[in-house]
Design a protein that fits this description.
The complex is a heterodimer of chains A (113) and B (514). Chain A is mostly beta strands and 113 residues long. Chain A has a domain of 69 residues: OB fold (Dihydrolipoamide Acetyltransferase, E2P) (Beta Barrel). In chain A, 4% of the residues lie in helices and 43% in strands. Chain A has a 4-stranded antiparallel beta sheet, with no helix packed on it. A 4-stranded antiparallel beta sheet of chain A has the order 7-6-4-9, with no helix packed on it. In chain A, 22% of the residues are buried. Chain B starts with a helix and ends in an 18-residue tail after the last helix. In chain B, helix 16 packs across helix 18. In chain B, strands 1, 2, 3, 4, 5, 6, 7 and 8 form an 8-stranded mixed beta sheet that branches. Chain B is an alpha/beta fold and 514 residues long. The chains are: A mainly beta (113), B alpha/beta (514). At the A-B interface, strand 1, strand 2, helix 1 and strand 9 of A face helix 13 and helix 16 of B.
């Protein structure tokens, strides 16, 4: 919280707790908080930043549950990424040599029953 | 050689070492707005009170042509001095010598002064300004850090440990400050991080400046690693001296009693807290209306500011204040504010500083982000810290005290010694709106005019439960008091609890929810 000029009138926001509305100031951290979304398990998302060094599938290819999709290097280790279901590779968002931050969507799967 | 010549030789040797990394490096240091390590020590201690040790220590590294390199003082100054006429131990890394990098002898100088500080029970002040481990010395520099961390932990709770970050402090080096009690940072000068912007760029392709990654503001406002933020080195040093005026020199000394000055008249205690519990105010004004000379020294002012912590004196003796701040996030408990308060409570307990708690909160902050960030685990810290603390604990409920927040904020149930409440206090399981909606759900839903019924039920609940008398009737509150009686009552409560002595079951140590 920045120091407030006492002469300046404070602009309050409100916050609800147990159905009661309280007037108050908000912190930047609170304002910047991420709104939760249900994770989509058809998306292969990077749980760590890394570098793609092997891709074993092509778009449109069918994979079995537990089949390897790609390998990336992170923290001096090769990490293998496997399919979590029987699926078709709908899209590949990365190619060999790509650097990516955490949370990047690497591929999208289309489930097959 | 006659003695005179020997003395001249000593003087020459001293001068050489004191020149640090040489003129060019010193110029560079000054261009960054930084003082030299020696200047910093001089401005910190009482005039002419500093004695330096290990001036002639040299490194013993042989690899990578290190044997040909002379590093004056091995990049760090250690010694003892006085502040407020009381002894302190100091080390200051000298960035002008090999970037203040930490090698084996450098670390041995630091651990030597740490050992003095612990043995002689005086505060340790570490001035950090270092590029990190001296890579040429390999695993020896890692060993050096480890030895420092061990001593930080050993000294924790025995002597105050202060870390002043006046330059870079990166990689393993950050963990010494993190283990100490108070971290001081200066805008645009302090930089703390585990992996720097360059590594992040090569590994992640993310570009970020040192300032945005781990500058003084980041650690004062976002991470909570720093306790005191200053705009200049001069201001930072004034903050250190001010802090040292409040805290005991070790865990085994009696508190000094200062001359008592009454609070300033501009803080009118009965006009600060609005009657309507939904309207905010600045709880620091309540503190200032009670402490001696209205002098309140806030800790971690910019981080988790929905909780206010800091030091003030009542009747000439220091107390630690832990207060909900309705001005920010309605004063809720959340992950950060619980963390902040819990650590401060443990500090006060370790150094025999009584804890004064002011309560005005609607409860814990709801939200997925809080739940997923572990508000259960972090929120438990404050319960643990209050329950565990054996120093005098005095609680004053200013206004709202709802639900879990009421329990957590030094309630009678966690063994507060005295709990007082102002007449406007509302001690209840939750706010009247929420409670009425649950208790009278059926009546409200089945009423011809549900909204009217809801309002009526809220009113009924308020009349019956939104006061301090229900809790007072059960002895959970010791006294309901008028605001103007507060200072005298706190003085009295602190006085009678001075000889407080309690014991629990025998154990090695508990397992706090870290």
């Amino acid at each position: 919280m920045e120091k407030q000029d006492p002469k300046q009138k404070l602009r309050y926001n409100s916050i609800y707790i147990d159905e009661t509305k309280y007037k108050t100031l908000l912190t930047t951290k609170y304002k910047n908080r991420k709104i939760w979304q249900k994770p989509n398990d058809n998306l292969v998302t990077a749980y760590i930043p890394g570098l793609i060094n092997k891709i074993l599938v092509k778009e449109g290819q069918k994979v079995k549950k537990g089949e390897q999709i790609l390998t990336f290097e992170a923290m001096k280790m090769n990490n293998r990424v496997y399919s979590n279901k029987n699926a078709k590779i709908k899209r590949l968002f990365v190619k060999i040599g790509d650097l990516f931050p955490r949370g990047t969507i690497l591929a999208e799967l289309e489930p097959i029953d | 050689m006659p003695l005179k010549r020997k003395i001249q030789e000593l003087q020459k040797k001293r001068e050489q070492v004191i020149s640090g990394g040489g003129e060019k490096a010193i110029e560079k240091q000054m261009a960054m707005g930084k003082q030299t390590a020696r200047e910093r020590i001089v401005s910190l201690v009482d005039k002419n009170s500093f004695s330096e040790y290990d001036l002639f220590v040299e490194h013993e590294a042989r690899d990578f042509n290190m044997d040909k390199k002379v590093l004056h003082g091995d990049g760090v100054i250690i010694g003892t001095g006085t502040i407020h006429n009381k002894p302190v131990a100091i080390f200051a890394q000298d960035f002008t010598v090999a970037g203040g990098s930490l090698g084996l002898m450098h670390s041995r100088k630091i651990t030597k002064i740490m050992d003095y500080a612990l043995k002689m029970r005086m505060p340790l002040i570490g001035i950090n300004d270092s590029g990190g481990a001296r890579i040429q010395e390999g695993v020896n520099s890692l060993a050096g850090y480890g030895e420092i961390f061990y001593r930080n932990t050993l000294s924790s709770g025995v002597i105050p440990q202060l870390s002043v970050i006046l330059g870079p402090c990166a990689g393993g080096a950050v963990y010494s400050p993190a283990l100490t009690d108070f971290v001081f940072v200066v805008d645009k000068i302090s930089k703390m991080f585990i992996t720097g912007p360059e590594v992040i760029k090569t590994v992640l392709g993310e570009e970020i400046s040192m300032e945005d990654l781990g500058g003084a503001r980041v650690h004062s406002e976002i991470t909570g690693n720093a306790h005191f933020f200053a705009y200049s080195e001069k201001e930072s040093i004034a903050q250190i001296k001010k802090l040292l005026s409040f805290i005991p020199w070790s865990n085994s000394v009696e508190q000094e009693v200062r001359k008592v000055k009454e609070p300033k008249r501009q803080f009118k205690i009965d006009q600060i807290v609005p009657d309507n519990p939904k309207i905010p105010y600045d709880v620091r004004n309540v503190i200032k209306s009670i402490v001696d000379d209205s002098d309140f020294f806030e800790v971690q002012e910019r981080w988790a500011s929905n909780m206010v912590i800091g030091f003030g004196r009542i009747g000439g003796k220091t107390a630690g204040f832990v207060c909900n701040q309705p001005l920010v996030l309605a004063g809720v408990l959340d992950v950060d504010s619980s963390d902040k308060a819990a650590r401060f409570i443990r500090y006060c307990d370790a150094f025999n500083i009584p804890i004064v708690t002011f309560v005005d909160l609607p409860g814990y902050l709801p939200g997925v982000d809080q739940e997923h960030a572990g508000v259960i685990r972090h929120g438990a810290k404050i319960l643990y810290a209050y329950s565990e603390a054996t120093v005098p604990k005095i609680t004053l409920i200013l206004r709202k005290a709802y639900g879990g927040g009421y329990i957590a904020m030094s309630s009678k149930h966690l063994r507060a010694d005295f709990v007082f409440a102002w007449p406007g206090a509302e001690i209840a399981v939750m706010g009247p709106e929420g409670a009425a909606n649950i208790i009278f759900r059926r009546e409200i839903n089945e009423a011809a005019d549900p909204e009217k019924m809801r309002k009526q039920k809220i009113k009924e609940y308020k009349a019956k439960f939104s006061n301090p008398y229900v809790a007072a009737s059960k002895g959970y509150i010791d006294a309901v008091i008028e605001p103007k009686e507060t200072r005298n009552l706190l003085l009295h409560a602190l006085k009678v609890s001075e000889q407080k002595s309690i014991g629990g079951p025998k154990k090695k140590h508990g397992i706090p929810p870290f």
